[in-house]
Amino acid sequence: MYRDIAAKLINGIQDGQFEIKLPTEAQLMEMYHASRNTIRKAIDLVYQQGLLRRVQGSGYFITSIQLQHKTVVNLSARGLFSDNMHPRQLVSKVLTFDTIKSDYDLSKQMGVPQDSELYRVIRLRYWHEQLYCLEKAYYLKSVVPYLSTEAVNTSIWDFLNEAYGLGVANSDDYLSLTNLSEEDASLMQLGHGDTYLALDSCNYYKNNGLLDFSHTVFVYPDLALYFHTTNLANN
């Protein structure tokens, strides 16, 4: 339950519902009909994403990075809340949605046997009517036996959570600069060989089972990257 509340708090921060600070623990307990312990665990998860700063005796304030930058990719939000690393209200244009068997290269990237059955989703994503990214994602059918067209057009992660109770427990992420292949350039109507930021991710659910692999190329102008770290020795 606390993970659901944490996701709602993150959405509230991103949507401007909480602009300066979070409500008090007592107010959040009333809002979400939850115990103090549940609320505290939810707040801790949001804090780990770098969206809050703790002020002794005053509560939790929204971090300035969240307020000042509207084109932030919050890499700290990888894992527990995969959708929350992107800006809210992205619009998807699905280019490919089918089932394939993994070839040698894809099997190696995912660490799965060759010819594993996968859902393949290739989509362009737009923010404020401008191209935000190209996303190629591959979901193991052994873990996700059914993926709906509606989910692919809206939020795959919401569907996985509601249909299968699947969430991302942790992820391996690799950031790099990539030169657009001829295929990717054609899909985005950009220049072949142009350089953009790419994120390759393997997402894992509980017990470290692989859920999916994705390759995302970000092309939105003035995009900022944010990553929050916590010094555990000082906690």
From TrEMBL:
Which InterPro entries would you find in this protein's record? Bact_HTH_transcr_reg (IPR050679), Chorismate_lyase_/UTRA_dom_sf (IPR028978), Tscrpt_reg_HTH_GntR (IPR000524), UTRA (IPR011663), WH-like_DNA-bd_sf (IPR036388), WH_DNA-bd_sf (IPR036390)
Q: Which UniProt keywords apply?
A: DNA-binding, Transcription, Transcription regulation
> Which Pfam families does the record match to this protein?
GntR (PF00392), UTRA (PF07702)
Give one GO biological process term: negative regulation of DNA-templated transcription
Query: Which SMART domains does this one have?
Result: HTH_GNTR, UTRA
Domain HTH gntR-type positions = 1-65
Q: Record's SUPFAM superfamilies?
A: Chorismate lyase-like, Winged helix' DNA-binding domain
Single GO MF descriptor: DNA binding
The record's annotation in Gene3D superfamilies points to:
Chorismate lyase-like (3.40.1410.10), Winged helix-like DNA-binding domain superfamily/Winged helix DNA-binding domain (1.10.10.10)
**Identification of the protein by name:** Transcription regulator
